[in-house]
């Protein structure tokens, strides 16, 4: 378990270092995600990598620790959420308009994104079947 | 009895142990209720944990800094959890690879809509300019959004409020909205909530469906990149 956690942290560390190093405008953990993905894909190609946390199918491998983290993803937002409760006066100052604008924007964004995705995916499958 | 309860409280309330325990315990209870209600959207564990803990801090007159001393251990795991998204992405790589094109089109449409809609509506209802700028990056994860807000000389703490509220609203509305519209494609449902409601929406997507969670995670990551480029553009073109 410790080896798997170390591997996850190592990917994040490499991501943060790269982002800081080249001054890229993206979050370090997202680059870390790509490093871990590449490692998992390389493991399938080169058997020599399939050991320790990358063995696969192990109860304490990197896969199971990642699944554990993601199963409790909601928990990780609680500290930041409590910070918002502390700043309720900011919302009260700007009143109902602030909440209303956010709510409408969320609904429109959900509808536009889901609509675009479905239309694009149907056009693509139709294009393939006609070929 | 040698020590009085007050001095015991003073000691414990300054230690990380108490606030870490409170965070985990309140979440464990709200998550159990969420499971008990079959993940009902209104039983969102983030929403209920944050107001219960917030009220508790108010009642005990505890500062957020003291609370964060304990809660930071949980907060820290956000980074590793982002890296961990690689695993479901790897396991569903075939489904993801076959949907690259719809994802890119939906990313473009969704991130433009997220930024433009909030800025135009906020201007229309007459919110002050600083508030409009602070709300612009509300659909991306808090760390990135606060960075964007800072670069616009807006108010990062107001941005954080907008980000968290957006996440909660998206997580609560996505399931009823998509069911009502009869959308059964969990790739599209997940992708939409990842664009609109970042990590809190992604957490909701993982509760509902594994494939939805993967697509939400991809959408959230890509949206963080696109929005940081998009907001300065939108400020130039939409606000005069």
Roughly how many Å is the radius of gyration of chain B? 20 Å
Helix content bin of chain B: over 70%
Please give the alpha-carbon distance between the first and last residues of chain B.
69 Å
Query: What integer is the average pLDDT of chain B?
Result: 91
Relative strand content of chain A: under 5%
- Give the averaged pLDDT of chain A, no decimals: 87
DSSP helical segment count of chain B: 13
Number of strands of chain A: 0
Strand content of chain B: under 5%
Number of helices of chain A: 5
Largest sheet of chain B: none
Rg of chain A from C-alpha positions?
Answer: 21 Å
Sketch the topology of chain A as an H/E string, one letter per element.
Answer: HHHHH
- Helix/strand-derived category of chain A reads mainly alpha
Unreliable parts of chain B: none
The shape of chain A, in one word, is extended
Structural class of chain B: mainly alpha
Dominant shape of chain B: globular
Number of domains of chain B: 2
Largest interface: A-B, 71 and 106 residues
Topology record:
The complex is a heterodimer of chains A (131) and B (240).
Chain A: H1 2-22, H2 28-45, H3 62-71, H4 78-86, H5 88-130
Helix pairs in contact in A: 1-2, 1-3
Chain B: H1 5-13, H2 16-36, H3 45-59, H4 64-76, H5 78-84, H6 86-91, H7 93-97, H8 100-124, H9 129-135, H10 142-151, H11 156-180, H12 186-208, H13 210-238
Helix pairs in contact in B: 2-3, 2-4, 8-9, 8-12, 8-13, 10-11, 11-12, 12-13
């Amino acid at each position: 378990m410790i080896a798997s956690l170390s591997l996850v942290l190592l990917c994040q560390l490499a991501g943060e270092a790269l982002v800081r190093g080249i001054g890229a405008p993206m979050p370090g953990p997202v680059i870390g995600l790509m490093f871990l993905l590449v490692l998992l894909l390389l493991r399938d190609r080169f058997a020599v990598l399939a050991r320790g946390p990358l063995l696969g199918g192990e109860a304490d491998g990197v896969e199971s620790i990642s699944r554990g983290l993601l199963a409790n993803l909601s928990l990780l937002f609680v500290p930041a959420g409590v910070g918002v409760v502390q700043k309720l006066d900011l919302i009260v100052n700007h009143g109902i308009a602030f909440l209303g604008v956010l709510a409408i924007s969320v609904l429109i964004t959900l509808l536009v994104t889901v609509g675009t995705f479905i239309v694009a995916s149907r056009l693509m499958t139709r294009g393939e079947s006609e070929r | 009895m040698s020590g009085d309860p007050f001095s015991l409280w003073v000691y414990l309330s300054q230690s990380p142990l108490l606030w870490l325990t409170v965070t985990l315990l309140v979440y464990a209870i709200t998550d159990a209720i969420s499971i008990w209600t079959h993940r009902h959207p209104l039983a969102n564990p983030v929403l209920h944990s944050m107001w219960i803990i917030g009220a508790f801090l108010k009642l005990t007159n505890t500062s957020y800094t003291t609370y964060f001393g304990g809660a930071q251990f949980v907060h820290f795991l956000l980074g590793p959890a982002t890296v961990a998204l690689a695993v479901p992405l790897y396991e569903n790589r075939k489904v993801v690879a076959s949907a690259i094109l719809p994802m890119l089109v939906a990313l473009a449409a969704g991130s433009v809509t997220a930024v433009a809609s909030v800025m135009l509506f906020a201007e229309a209802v007459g919110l002050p300019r600083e508030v409009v700028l602070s709300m612009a990056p509300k659909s991306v994860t808090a760390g990135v959004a606060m960075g964007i807000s800072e670069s616009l000389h807006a108010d990062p703490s107001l941005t954080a409020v907008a980000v968290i509220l957006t996440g909660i609203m998206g997580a609560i509305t996505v399931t009823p909205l998509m069911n009502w519209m009869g959308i059964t494609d969990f790739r599209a449902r997940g992708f939409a909530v990842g664009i609109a409601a970042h990590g809190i929406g992604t957490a909701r997507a993982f509760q509902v469906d594994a494939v939805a969670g993967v697509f939400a995670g991809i959408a959230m990551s890509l949206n963080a990149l696109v929005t940081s480029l998009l907001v300065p553009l939108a400020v130039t073109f939409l606000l005069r």
